[in-house]
Every structure is written in C-alpha cells, then in structure tokens.
Design a protein that fits this description.
Structural class: alpha/beta
Low-confidence stretches: none
Order of helices and strands: EHEHEHEHE
Radius of gyration: 15 Å
Number of helices: 4
Bound molecules: adenosine-5'-triphosphate, manganese (II) ion
Helix content: 25-40%
CATH topology: Rossmann fold
C-alpha cells in the first residue's frame, strides 16, 4: 500500500524544475496528497560588490510572484498547494523542510538554473539525495516521460 500525504517540490524556476513540478502535481492528484512548493533564496555573498545590489527582501518578493505565477499557470485549483520561501543554503533548507513538514516524497529536477548538463546532477540535488530522510524522485529535463 502506498500512503503519500505530503509531497515537497523544491523549485528554482528553471525548466528542469518546472518539468519536475508536472510530476509532483500528478502524484499529488493521484494520491490525494498535499503539495508544497519551496523556493530557497540563497544569501548574497557580502563581498559581491561588482553585481548590482539586490536585497534579500527583493529576492523574496520576486520569488513570491514567481511562485504565485507557477500556481496560477500550472496548477489546477482542485489541488491543495502551499508555498514556502526561505533564505539559506538550498540543500540545507530542503533537508530541514523534509523533516519539519513531515514530507513523504520529494520531487525535484536533476539540474537547475546553472544547468551544467555534463554533470550527472546539480549540487543541490546531489546533497539532498545523499542526506534525505525520505524517497526522492529526480526528474531530468529530457527523458522518457510518463506524465503527459
Ligand atoms: P549547481 O547549482 O550545482 O551549479 P544546477 O543549478 O544545474 O547546478 P541544482 O541547483 O542542483 O542544479 O538544481 C537541481 C534541482 O534542485 C532543481 O531542479 C530544483 O528542483 C532544486 N533547486 C535548486 N536550487 C533551488 C532553490 N534555490 N530553491 C529550491 N529548489 C532548488
Ligand atoms: Mn543551482
């Protein structure tokens, strides 16, 4: 018997994580599970003087808009979805959320914004897979799809 009550879908808004969201949604609907979308805002390095300064508050605001957009465009209203935005190291925040939210399944992309496809998977996915306390479904950008 399969009991999946809570699914966590961490997203960095990349194409690959959007593809993972398709899977997360279908699993949530099929299992009648709650879907939690999580975006992590990585703290800005204090020494990054050469890039225009964007405050964490601004990054969080943009993330909120992008999450709302994802839900509006990609998620049916019948689905129970909640969102989380946290500041921190992505893998640590995801690993903590798995525990604090009592997550049964994580659905995430193999790659993200950086998307170095020569690497088997990105560093966030690798760290989460190594230390996660629940099963992880890693979705690649191009593979045999079973969600239509
Ligand atoms: P790297 O960041 O190691 O240079 P990458 O960007 O290609 O490589 P990851 O960052 O590991 O790969 O991204 C893989 C998946 O991890 C994404 O598809 C997404 O599901 C999740 N992820 C990455 N960054 C974040 C983030 N900031 N917030 C939430 N989820 C994230
Ligand atoms: Mn990344």
């Amino acid at each position: 018997m399969i009991t999946i009550k809570k699914i966590l879908c961490p997203t960095d808004f990349s194409e690959t994580s959007r593809n993972a969201l398709r899977y997360a949604k279908e699993f949530a609907m099929a299992m009648n599970a709650k879907l939690i979308l999580l975006h992590v805002v990585e703290p800005i390095a204090a020494t990054a003087e050469t890039v225009p300064f964007i405050s964490e508050a601004e990054l969080e605001k943009t993330a909120r808009e992008e999450l709302d957009d994802l839900i509006r465009k990609d998620c049916p209203p019948s689905l129970a979805i909640s969102t989380l935005i946290s500041v921190g190291l992505s893998s640590d925040v995801i690993l903590n959320a798995i525990k604090s939210e009592d997550i049964d399944l994580v659905v995430m992309g193999s790659h993200g914004r950086t998307g170095l496809t020569r690497l088997l998977m990105g560093s966030v996915t690798e760290a989460v897979m190594r230390r996660a306390t629940c099963p992880i479904l890693v979705v690649k950008e191009h593979e045999k799809e079973f969600v239509s």
